[in-house]
Design goal:
Number of domains: 2
Number of strands: 3
CATH class of the largest domain: Mainly Alpha
Strand content: under 5%
Order of helices and strands: HHHHHHHEEEHHHHHHH
Strand order of the largest sheet: 1-2-3
Number of helices: 14
Distance between the termini: 69 Å
CATH superfamily of the largest domain: Intergrase catalytic core
């Protein structure tokens, strides 16, 4: 019968087994530990802490998170998948779980590489969903959604912006991305105006605590603390439901930002800089513009088209 263990004890036991009994190399053990840390932390952010309660859908959602939110290449996701399969097979063999949900997971090469894109109309519905009747933090939420779309921000990035990194006069935000890479991204008037309104009318009350718990972050929680990535996910999902949208997650705002720029004719190198991609190959996934736009580009650029 499956136990009610949380992940902490099985992970320790599995890594000990891999080191002592399987005799795996130190590099392999380190990779297993990193992958399982990513897995357990991301599952916990969704309230999933018991191995016996994990479904194949939960694991598939985690792999999609690795691809979309962490932006790992398919080869890296495949390595994570291998770790997950070995770990869950070991737990099943040791009676920690009764059923191994990882055994039927698809390989990432069979996935669609991109998440969905919100149309401009749906994006407008999402960012305009926050209203006074939806809670006392609605103005902060509106500013957050506007900034995420206007600057193509990841969920982990928007909460890290500090007060002095929002540049009202020049309409720029300084963003700290993956690998501690910093980029400066322009924003439009809606994002600037709603952020200014939030700063003037709401943030002083949220950051009223004298202990510095806000860490000078631009966006803070109801308790005055920096806005965490998990909270960003919850906020996006809340307003997606209110806007009548399904299957929405924070990375779709970033993906839509980039796609709308490309569809509007933006140079791919500029989009690369705005997204903070170190490799232009990563940015090329955003060139899935519709065929009508491609025909327009050909007609405009070729003399005999």
């Amino acid at each position: 019968m499956a136990s009610a263990h949380t992940f902490e004890r099985p992970v320790r036991a599995f890594l000990a087994f891999a080191r002592v009994e399987a005799g795996l190399a130190a590099s392999t053990l380190e990779a297993y530990a990193r992958d399982l840390n990513d897995l357990t932390e991301e599952l916990a952010s969704r309230g999933l802490t018991l191995p016996a309660a994990i479904s194949v859908e939960d694991l598939a959602a985690h792999l999609r998170w690795l691809s979309r939110e962490k932006e790992l290449q398919a080869s890296s996701v495949a390595r994570h998948l291998a770790t997950i399969r070995v770990f869950f097979r070991w737990m099943c063999a040791n009676g920690i779980i009764e059923y191994d949900p990882a055994r039927i997971l698809e390989r990432p090469t069979r996935w669609k590489k991109l998440p969905g894109v919100l149309s401009p109309l749906k994006m407008r519905a999402l960012v305009e969903a926050p209203a006074p009747e939806h809670g006392k933090l609605w103005m902060r939420d509106r500013a957050m959604l506007e900034l995420m779309y206007a600057a193509g921000l990841r969920a982990s990035e928007v909460g890290r912006i500090r007060l002095n990194e929002f540049h009202e006069q020049t309409m720029l935000v300084t963003v700290h991305g993956k690998g501690e890479r910093t980029r400066v991204v322009p924003i439009g008037e809606p994002a600037r105006d709603w952020t200014n309104r939030y700063l003037a009318e709401m943030r002083p009350e949220l950051a009223r605590f004298p202990d510095g718990r806000d860490e000078h972050r631009l966006l803070v929680s109801g308790g005055g603390r920096p806005l965490e990535r998990v909270a960003v996910w919850q906020i996006v999902r809340k307003y997606a439901r209110l806007a009548g949208l399904e299957g929405i997650h924070p990375h779709m705002l970033r993906h839509s930002f980039a796609t709308h720029l490309v569809q509007g004719g933006a140079d791919l190198r500029i989009v690369q800089d705005l997204l903070g991609h170190s490799d232009i190959g990563t940015t090329q996934v955003y060139t899935h513009v519709d065929r009508t736009h491609l025909h327009e580009v050909v007609r405009a650029c070729l003399p005999r088209s």
